[in-house]
Design a protein that fits this description.
alpha+beta, 8 strands, 8-stranded antiparallel beta sheet, 159 residues
């Protein structure tokens, strides 16, 4: 995972990479089928299919807030790019799935969140790592991780 400068001097992009023991066609479904996304981030439905607009219910967030998103790019089973908009702001996200290993038995998952305000990098990175681990746990039938385990401990002496 890394942060890279982006267009605005006050923002950076988060990039998280994982190699997952599953073909990308299978992993793709965990990002695009509502019954599967419901198990880790939330169910979604089209609000305007022709415009690529969806509504998403964020099940792991306090109060399960609703979010709207616009699909900017959907190239199955390789790239999904969305822009979400809700009370937290506007977020530009991209998931890339690349075949890995002999015969594509594994997948390199690359998750990117662009233009993250620098002051929010630590918390947002923790959140995305939690969500991705939650998805992988659901995929493999494992216990859901605990969000607090992803938070960095407070700096000594900080109020």
């Amino acid at each position: 995972m890394s942060e890279t400068p982006s267009g605005d001097a006050g923002t950076q992009s988060i990039r998280i990479e994982r190699v997952v023991a599953a073909p990308r066609e299978d992993l793709w479904l965990w990002f695009t089928e509502s019954d599967r996304t419901a198990q880790w981030i939330g169910p979604w439905h089209y609000t305007d299919q022709a415009a690529g607009q969806i509504g998403l219910q964020l099940v792991a967030e306090e109060g399960t807030p609703a979010s709207s998103a616009t699909i900017g790019r959907c190239e199955a089973p390789g790239v999904l790019e969305v822009t979400t908009e809700d009370a937290a702001g506007v977020w530009h996200l991209q998931v890339s799935l690349e075949p890995e290993g002999p015969g594509g038995a594994s997948t390199r998952l690359i998750f990117e969140h662009f233009d993250v305000p620098v002051g929010m990098l630590t918390d947002i990175r923790a959140g995305w790592n939690f969500y991705l681990d939650t998805m992988l746990a659901a995929k493999d039938g494992l216990e859901k991780p605990v969000f607090e385990d992803y938070l960095e401990p407070p700096t000594p002496g900080a109020d």
